[in-house]
Model the fold of this input.
Amino acid sequence: MTTSASETIESAFLRQQPVKMLIGGQWVEAASGKTFETLNPATGKVLAHVAEGDAEDINRAVAAARKAFESGPWPKMTPSQRGRLLWRVAELIEEHADELAMLETLDNGKPIKYSKASDVPLTADHFRYFAGWATKIEGETIPVSIPNMLTYTLREPLGVVGQIIPWNFPMQMASWKLAPALAAGNTVILKPAEQTPLTALRIGELICEAGFPDGVVNIVPGYGHTAGAALAAHLDVDKIAFTGSTEVGKKILQASAGNLKKITLELGGKSPNIIFPDADLKWAVRGALTAIYFNSGQICTAGSRLFVHQSIYDETISQMAEAAAAMKVGEGVDPATEMGPVITQEQLDRVSGYIETGRREGATARAGGERVGGDLADGFFLRPTVLDQVTDEMTVAREEIFGPVVVALPFEEIEEVAARANRSIYGLAAGVWTSDIKKAHKMVSLLKSGVVWVNTYNQFDAAAPFGGYRQSGYGREMGHAVLDAYTQIKTAWINLR
Ligand code: ADP
Done:
């Protein structure tokens, strides 16, 4: 089944060509007049032409964001007014749920059932959760030991915030970035990923409709090495919030040195998912499948190292391989699809290259291991892959593949598996499957990662902090923890004598 975008979506937004960028409350073409193509990864065909922002557009957007931060209605708004605007965005997202879900599926490739059940509602939830926080960002009174002093703190916004996001969850990533920054009173320049700019721009329209003042939110699509790099280096940007690869995260850190802008980085992972022999095996296998194949494995928390206790290893890997082979891979627009394509030809080549490297180093594919042909040959489809006969030292067991490829590794002891799980440059997430409550808590304490899921995997909630240890990043998103990353503390001393 091959469906053209215009047949699938009734969106005036998609019919405007090129899709424009949002600067200072205006929808404009790039200063250079250039555009770039965004493709449908299920068909390899062009979905839309989009204004291609570069350094000049970033300069304009930063100027608009600075103006909106310093003057006009935004800095005068009460926290309650900011909260209402964010709440209104959540309502508008829900009113346009079907359109946004389809746009996300067409641009990213993910199954429509997940765009509908997960991406759209979680995006709306994020705005609603942070709408509540706008009125709860409090300072403290400090009992200093100097007589007659009233000493208190204020939490003030940082100012102009640049936000650079990836292509795997385009809409949710936009909400993770925008909602807390705006709740805290900052102004924003968001740069969506060049592969998937559409839903962030559509949400930009909804933000305008909600009534945010001009220049508070600017959205500049474009490439990483031009628009992204210009934003990261800009001397009038006070903070960069970045989600993406560890490699680019390091570049963002270097670029921040010019004006010592604050940064938060949510980077890669190579997450262990550990099945103990006392686990409910049916659920554990189901969980392990979701952990790796959800979003075609293109999720920084992917449970890509599957540790299975020696005593149940053969049975578990057989079940896993059988279930992986039975998964329905297809176009995201088909409601029966369980796994969509990977994002680009480049990503398809990269992931296939890892599978080849794995084979060369001695691994065997128990399921998958190749591209999908037939009707799906024009899209970027890979079969869900299970690699067996792997050792911890192999490339496929150490590097982030960011595709539907899991490596299976047997283990014997709890301390041994915890030590092996922790032996990684990353520390983003981990999964544990056991029916022993003591073992569960022990593993939570032993695993060195920002999130540990027990008898579940890939759970996210706007209220629960998320972020990495080691080279998986700096700072936390979600929950009130993220507000620390979008505010700065001012201490006031009042002499009452
Ligand atoms: P991925 O490997 O998942 O594509 P990247 O880290 O390359 O992740 O990209 C994540 C985001 O970072 C995208 O919006 C991309 O355009 C942007 N980006 C890439 N290179 C740079 C750079 N040098 N400076 C700033 N942003 C960049």
